[in-house]
Specification:
By secondary structure, the chain is α+β, with helices and mostly antiparallel strands. About 30% of the residues lie in helices and about 20% in strands. The strands form 3 sheets. A 3-stranded antiparallel beta sheet has the order 3-7-4. The longest helix is centred in the last third of the chain and has 14 residues. The radius of gyration is 19 Å and the shape is elongated.
């Protein structure tokens, strides 16, 4: 068996990469320098297309159940609304921005990755990458 693909970071992107690679039979090692899963959120929204992709993996239903559907959004500048977003025009089964904690999104992804046999390795930091002359000769 070949060496596993190393994914550094067990946030939404790393977890999704680990899920997709492991589903395709690629060996994966998922590391994160944090002590454990995040308990706070740095992001609060999941876009329609992302939900469509998560639906293919059986993950969207729980996210929608836990989240809140944001139909509109506004951007303000100088004390005035300068732009209004209407997510109802999105051509999707999910014509909204799903407002859900990043911690919840990560939990759902982490559980899916664990079912694939790829638990995150906490307290494990990528310190450097090296290549010797032999490894570059394929």
């Amino acid at each position: 068996m070949s060496n596993p693909v190393l994914i550094a970071g067990a946030g939404p992107t790393g977890l999704t990469a680990a899920l997709e690679l492991s589903r395709m039979g690629v060996a994966v090692r998922l590391i994160d320098k944090r002590e454990g899963p995040a308990s706070t959120s740095r992001a609060i929204g999941v876009q329609a297309r992302t939900l469509e992709l998560f639906e293919q993996r059986g993950l969207a239903q729980e996210m929608v159940r836990l989240g809140n559907r944001g139909r509109f959004g506004s951007i303000y500048g100088g004390g005035k609304r300068v732009f209004r977003l209407d997510f109802g025009h999105v051509e999707s089964r999910y014509p909204f921005m799903l407002l859900i904690s990043q911690a919840e999104t990560e939990r759902i992804l982490r559980e899916a990755v664990a079912r694939q046999g790829v638990p995150p390795e906490w307290n494990t930091e990528l310190a450097g990458i090296g290549q010797d002359a032999l490894s570059s000769q394929g």
